[in-house]
Amino acid sequence: MTLTRRAILAGTALAVTPIAGPSFAQAPATPGTAAAGAKQAPGFYRYKVGDIEVTAINDGFAKRPLEGFVKNAELSLVQQAMKDAFLPSDALPITFNTLVLNQNGRLTLIDTGNGDSGAPTAGTWMANFRAAGFDPAQVDTVVFSHFHGDHINGFRLKDGTAVFLKAEALVPATEWDFWMDDGKMAQAPEGMKGAFQGVRRVFAPIAKDVKRYEAGKEIVPGLTAVAAPGHTPGHTAYMLSSGNGKLMIMSDLTNHPALFVRNPDWSAIFDMDADQARATRRRMLDMAATERAQVAFYHAPFPATGFIARDGTGFALVPIQWTPAL
Ligand SMILES: [Zn+2]
């Protein structure tokens, strides 16, 4: 038979003639066969950086209207960038991906997802974390990149319950100084007050135990904090190193790569200092491209890791090949 474009579009191309040999379509359902609509496989992916085992844990996604999302580009250009990436042109699906570092059983999280405070399509983090074989009671350290709700809310349930019972919390000192400043909260526009209150909800009960870290320091073995300001005042990226392995953990250096890796000068609505964020983004994407370093982004499509290639006036995220650690 001839495959025509019309037949493919009509979905009939392969249905007409069974493929020669045993017909898979007619095979009887075996016990345990997933029914249509059965749950997706858990969203975790393990890979190695030197001797360190890294696990990306997905926390679902949230849709944001495209209109107004990029502050300094015409909507039509943003819609075209979405189209070029085969994404919807009305709303942006933003995914959330945290990392777990496992160093001989010592567990470090980088950010915690939305917890029970996010969109109905988010909040899958705990199920995926457990499916990956982890237990929140066993987490030793939680490192926070910055204080936006999608990164910190998973640390404490809405009712106030702490999620990681023995974990120490490591936060960027600059970020702490900004968000915990009552004067800054009083001056903030109405729309931002909720973010200040959210930070207090999560951290106030353990304020005296929170450890504040400085950029440029190795904060857990192999993990060095890198100042990446602009998205927020203390927004932090990381360099993870072990043996010959390196991973640049970019946090929210960009929101969706199809928009902001591709167009690094565009500003997302969440970037608090757009000019500073733009300069930081250019510098770090350029470094990743030059060094051909593996990168991880919090808001990239799962498993949210790959490489940065130069592409025209911007860059492109090249996904990594599926290469599980085990
Ligand atoms: Zn974020």
Automatic annotation (TrEMBL):
SMART domains: Lactamase_B (SM00849). GO terms for molecular function: hydrolase activity; metal ion binding. This is MBL fold metallo-hydrolase. The lineage of its organism: Bacteria, Pseudomonadati, Pseudomonadota, Alphaproteobacteria, Hyphomicrobiales. Keywords: Hydrolase, Metal-binding, Signal, Zinc. Residues 94-299 form the Metallo-beta-lactamase domain. Belongs to the metallo-beta-lactamase superfamily. Residues 1-25 form the signal peptide. Gene3D superfamilies: Ribonuclease Z/Hydroxyacylglutathione hydrolase-like.
